[in-house]
């Protein structure tokens, strides 16, 4: 299926990447109103042109994508539901899950399409944005490099903020336990953060997704165990469904939306996962790695959110583990 874009006639030549990993020259000829891919561009298959030193199987890609979307944010879902209510929370989680999945689909599909146009095997997040601007309407082409720089900084700041939140959740959970069993310790939050800085820096030195996949798989197992432990405590002396309001004042809804999107999205990992797949054509489509992963994520988030909210109500903490009985090891 040929792509068509409404744009003015132009012919451009642009280098998509500066780092030389996927150097390419784009040369596009257009008609007066519609862009038409010529026969050579139709024949170019970026999937066949990828030369991967460490290709990932569908299972490894599934593990990495699941870990990026199914993180400790699931433990914040009861706190999200207290800002939505039972019924609004359930349908809201499904709708937001669909929106997140659709946005990821658009990102990956656009990246694949622009790879065919620019004749490069794969593109990263910022490179995709640069290529889209470079091959877009003439007035926007001059912004291609600036948009790439903007996306790089935006992604870095977004992921930095998310990682900071995860470290705080980690520190709060560990500090709660240590303070309970050792009330006279002199450790404060800053010292805990410095202690965890060392193993975090070690893990960040693993830059290949193939080698991260086993850690992601192990982390998924631990996360499932945490999920089951939380469900065990939640279901003990479980209240009835109508014990909590089905909806709360609409002014609290942005907190619900922000928490769910923060917990669910893993946009920074999507293109690296797709770019390193041995069979990238299995990423999209039905069932596809993306749809299977996001279906599991939405289901688990919805279960944790509704059960945790029914159990703890407005007293649900930012991480449901903080509501568990600390005296039980």
Word description of this protein:
Keywords: Membrane, Transmembrane, Transmembrane helix. Its main location: membrane. The protein has 329 residues and is mostly helical. It has one domain. The chain is globular. The N terminus is likely disordered.
Rg calc: 23 Å
Biggest pleated sheet? none
Average pLDDT taken over every residue: 80
Oligomer: single chain
* Proportion in β-strands: under 5%
**Helix fraction by DSSP (H/I, runs of at least 4):** 55-70%
Total E-strand runs: 0
Query: Which of globular, elongated, flat, extended, rod-shaped describes the shape?
Result: globular
Query: What low-confidence regions span 5 or more consecutive residues with pLDDT below 50?
Result: 1-39
Gap between N and C termini? 58 Å
Helix and strand sequence: HHHHHHHHHHHHH
Helix count equals 13
The count of domains is 1
Structural class: mainly alpha
SSE map:
Blueprint: H1 39-43, H2 46-49, H3 58-69, H4 77-81, H5 86-118, H6 125-134, H7 138-141, H8 144-181, H9 189-203, H10 209-235, H11 253-264, H12 267-275, H13 288-312
Which features characterize this protein?
329 residues; 13 helices; 0% strand; disordered N terminus; transmembrane helix; mainly alpha; 60% helix; Amino acid transporter transmembrane domain-containing protein; single chain; membrane; L-amino acid transmembrane transporter activity
């Amino acid at each position: 299926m040929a792509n068509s874009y409404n744009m003015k006639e132009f012919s451009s030549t642009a280098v998509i990447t500066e780092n030389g990993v996927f150097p390419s020259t784009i040369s596009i000829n257009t008609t007066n109103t519609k862009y038409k891919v010529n026969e050579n561009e139709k024949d170019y298959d970026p999937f066949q042109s990828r030369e991967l030193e460490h290709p990932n199987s569908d299972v490894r890609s599934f593990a990495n994508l699941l870990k990026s979307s199914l993180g400790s944010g699931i433990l914040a879902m009861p706190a999200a539901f207290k800002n939505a209510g039972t019924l609004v929370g359930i349908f809201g989680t499904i709708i937001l899950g669909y929106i997140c999945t659709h946005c990821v689909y658009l990102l990956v599909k656009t990246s694949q399409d622009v790879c065919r146009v620019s004749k490069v095997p794969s593109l990263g997040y910022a490179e995709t944005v640069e290529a889209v601007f470079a091959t877009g309407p003439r007035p926007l082409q001059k912004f291609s490099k600036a948009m790439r720089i903007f996306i790089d900084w935006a992604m870095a700041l977004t992921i930095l903020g998310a990682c900071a939140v995860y470290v705080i959740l980690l520190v709060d959970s560990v500090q709660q336990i240590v303070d309970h069993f050792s009330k006279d310790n002199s450790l404060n939050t800053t010292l805990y953060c410095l202690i965890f800085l060392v193993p975090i820096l070690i893990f960040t030195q693993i830059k290949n997704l193939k080698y991260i996949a086993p850690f992601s798989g192990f982390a998924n197992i631990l996360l499932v165990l945490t999920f089951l432990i939380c469900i065990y405590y939640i279901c003990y002396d479980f209240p009835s469904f109508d014990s909590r309001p089905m909806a709360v004042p609409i002014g609290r809804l942005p907190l619900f939306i922000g928490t769910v999107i923060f917990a669910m999205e893993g946009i920074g990992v999507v293109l690296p996962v797709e770019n390193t797949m041995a069979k990238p054509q299995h990423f999209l489509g039905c069932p596809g790695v993306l749809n299977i992963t996001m279906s599991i994520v939405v289901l688990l988030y919805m279960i944790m959110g509704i059960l945790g909210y029914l159990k703890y109500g407005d007293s649900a903490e930012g991480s449901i583990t903080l509501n568990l009985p600390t005296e039980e090891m």
